[in-house]
Specification:
mainly alpha; about 0% strand
Length: about 150
């Protein structure tokens, strides 16, 4: 193997590390998302015994779980696209082909999905905070808030 081939291979490995760092971050986000989904499921289980007494809370939990479902799907798609970007780097180096469009397509799509997943997670977090604040209000204040 010539020195230039080794330098080229090392450069490809260096380039492939960027998508892998994104993949590591996405895996951490997926862990957070699934933990929150588990907490929502536990809360639904507790409230399901008296569903008629907690219709608003159950509706809010349903909306939160849908937002987290979307976040999980988008983060998983971003991870798959990131893997596609890394694979494109390696295949492009092996074939010496013009795979730049595929690389930009995969990595750009992965970034868009990651941003959308974070937006869905942010929406779920806002819903969660609103639920906590409503539950923390005294009973009389809740009635005034509902009347608005």
């Amino acid at each position: 193997m010539e020195t230039t081939d080794l330098a080229q291979a090392a450069h490809v490995v260096q380039l492939a590390l960027t998508p892998i760092f994104l993949l590591t971050g996405l895996a951490s986000l997926l862990n957070v998302f699934t933990t929150r989904l588990g907490r929502i499921a536990d809360r639904v289980d507790r409230l399901a015994n008296d569903a008629a007494g907690h219709p608003r809370q159950l509706a809010r939990l349903r909306l939160r779980s849908r937002a987290l479902d979307l976040a999980v799907l988008l983060a998983a798609l971003a991870g798959a696209l990131t893997c596609g970007a890394a694979l494109t780097l390696f295949l492009g180096a092996l074939r010496n082909a013009g795979t730049g469009y595929f690389l930009f397509g995969f990595f750009g799509s992965a970034l868009i999905c990651a941003v959308a997943a974070l937006a869905a997670f942010g929406f779920e977090t806002v819903l969660s905070g609103r639920s906590v604040r409503e539950q923390a209000q005294p009973e009389g204040d809740q009635q005034e808030h509902q009347d608005r």
